[in-house]
Amino acid sequence: MSVSATDSSMDATPTLDIDPLLDDPATRIIVCCGAGGVGKTTTAAALGVRAAERGRKVVVLTIDPARRLAQSMGIDELDNTPRRVKGIDESAGGELSAMMLDMKRTFDEIVEAHADGERARAILENPFYQSLSAGFAGTQEYMAMEKLGQLRARDEWDLIVVDTPPSRSALDFLDAPKRLGSFLDGKFIRVLMAPAKVGGRAGMKFLNVGMSMMTGTLSKLMGGQLLRDVQTFVAAMDTMFGGFRTRADATYRLLQAPGTAFLVVAAPERDALREAAYFVERLAAEEMPFAGLVLNRVHGSGAPQLSAERALAAAENLDEAGIVDQGAGHAGVRDSSATSPESDPAPDDTSEGESGTRAAHSVEQLTAGLLRLHAERMHVLAREQRTRDRFTALHPEVAVAEVAALPGDVHDLAGLRAIADRLAASDAVEPGATPDEFARSDQPVG
Amino acid sequence: MSRLQVVSGKGGTGKTTVAAALALALATEGKRALLVEVEGRQGIAQLFETEALPYEERKIAVAPGGGEVYALAIDAERALLDYLQMFYKLGGAGRALKKLGAIDFATTIAPGLRDVLLTGKACEAVRRRDKQNRYAYDYVVMDAPPTGRITRFLNVNDEVAGLARFGPIHNQAQAVMRVLKSPETAVHLVTLLEEMPVQETADGIAELHAAELPVGNVIVNMVRPHLLDEDALRTAAGERRAAVAKALSLAGLGGARRGGLAERLVDPLLEQAAEHAERVELEREQRAVLARLDLATYELPLLGEGMDLAGLYRLAKELRTRIAPGGTA
Fold this sequence. Notes:
Number of helices of chain A: 18
Largest sheet of chain B: 8 strands, mixed
Low-confidence stretches of chain A: 1-10, 196-208, 324-360, 428-446
Strand order of the largest sheet of chain A: 3-4-2-5-1-6-7-8
Oligomer: heterodimer
Helix content of chain A: 40-55%
Number of helices of chain B: 13
Helix content of chain B: 40-55%
Strand order of the largest sheet of chain B: 3-4-2-5-1-6-7-8
Mean pLDDT of chain A: 75
Structural class of chain A: alpha/beta
CATH superfamily of the largest domain in chain B: P-loop containing nucleotide triphosphate hydrolases
Largest interface: A-B, 103 and 109 residues
Distance between the termini of chain B: 6 Å
Radius of gyration of chain B: 25 Å
Mean pLDDT of chain B: 85
Order of helices and strands of chain B: EHEHEEHHHHEHHEHEHHHEH
Strand content of chain A: 5-15%
Strand content of chain B: 5-15%
Radius of gyration of chain A: 28 Å
Order of helices and strands of chain A: HHEHEHEEHHHHEHHHHHEHEHHHEH
CATH topology of the largest domain in chain B: Rossmann fold
Shape of chain A: elongated
Shape of chain B: elongated
Largest sheet of chain A: 8 strands, mixed
């Protein structure tokens, strides 16, 4: 494999410039979506930190149930209200707040705000409501939409960065208004509510046969008591649902407006990029303003001019030299079959490694180890490149910002800043972008 | 060996791959395994390189030794119609409900019901018997929702049983919970040797225990081979730079002089080695955290060329050696 051949197809990929996006006062909402485990929450937090330190008043809304944002921002308590993040450089006039969505509380607040005292109490005490609001799959999406609308309406921040739930359902919130609409306009709600509204046997004769068969069926299916709970719940929610739909519609329009930017977050792995492609297509179908792809955890190498093949061949040369010179074998180097690292399954416990032979590591063996490590890195680069090429072939128009992989995890503001720096200087990561370096002679040597 | 194997894990840890490999591993010696997908992502079809799976149990692989793997992508709406037919003989009413938008309501607007249907269908497959009264499947392997959602997902029927205090829904919910809370079920969590997935695994296990759901194993996926002894590296990183440059030159990679081609490789190579050492150290810490969970832990190797069908069979082979009959997986 030649390095220049693998990266040539990326030449045409437009770069996503993060700073202009963050600095533009017209950017009011940034939505980060993508598959789980690609660093969405971290990206959202890093964008928030950078925007705040560049002078914007930012709030980061995370919806992920794991308290990851809290960890990375050094806040232990993320409740349903935005909390000011300490340790941000506010000299440019900006500030950062962060909050984590509490679904139940958000739901309760809506009920309290839109229903009068008695009705609100009836809803809050309804067992069906209590289950629904505690956050089954799906409730998250509705409540995220609601909370985003609330934050925007408060107008206290000039930039809202939103993290989304960790699954494909992340985009379900786009469907929320439509689904609620079809439900509310549908016959089903009338069937459900009919007995509760007309009340008792006297009302039943006003229902046609089909409807009474339907409530009979439902009663048989759900048990009479559950059906009554659902009916009470739906009846009580009736007015509120209408208000919710109006607000959800407004939020949907807000998302489509030019002040919003959707970022799709991915890692250079097959599944993550496949999900990214799905998000890109879905956003286009919904006419949502898509800004670009953030590609996290991209590996680079300081020595892209040295191919995996050459490195391995050189390592073998050294092995031979080492055997002749020392006869000490491979004590310092494990798994010499680096061409197919997976051929040695489940590596043993790391505590292995005979201490007695350590001192005897020859320079040749160490160097061979360095070369094998490099070969493995170059294989990773090649695999990531192939995966990206596939995505780029499908979506050549998508602007990409790359974030170089960090060896460790991020769990403080400094780490978030480092991520943001890498995000903003994205083209520094381009692997194999300097094939001519081999010929350069003015490289400083440290 | 539990007959319902639930595989969860943080996003990006490869739980679909592990679930598929586990199904292949369990389907040895004429056994039949059903691999069940509940999130509508068609991950199984992509893994086995077949077209999208319909809502139908379909053979997708033959395991070494003659066993068979079937796959099913559960569709909540179809599962609901199935139920109406199966339990209440309500095929016609089901269609009418659909017209009214009730099915839509049940599977999307009232999202909890979706989980009821998905878990219910999986448990139905576990309990199903053929005409000779043998189990239709020896094992059912579920590619389940991620760790953050798994307890609520599996426990949804408890909540339903509380909501519908009697009647057919109550009975059905209780029947499902009896399977899920019995030794017939094992919930495995897939993780990587990274801080956040390991933390989520620990949290997930605590939640499962609290809900009295049976915890199985921790499966550490994508474990990298160790190519270089870190201690050796520290020595190399010290004062032996010149010697390394000379060795590189000796290996045919150019001049070892200051500014020579081989000499200029030393810094980047050492930097990569330092990153590697940092990673190895982090992995060691995470292994220690996992060891404190006091559960059987399996490791699966990272496949250098990415995941494909051949890789899947290799992972299955890895798993098979660890879950020999009589094992505790």
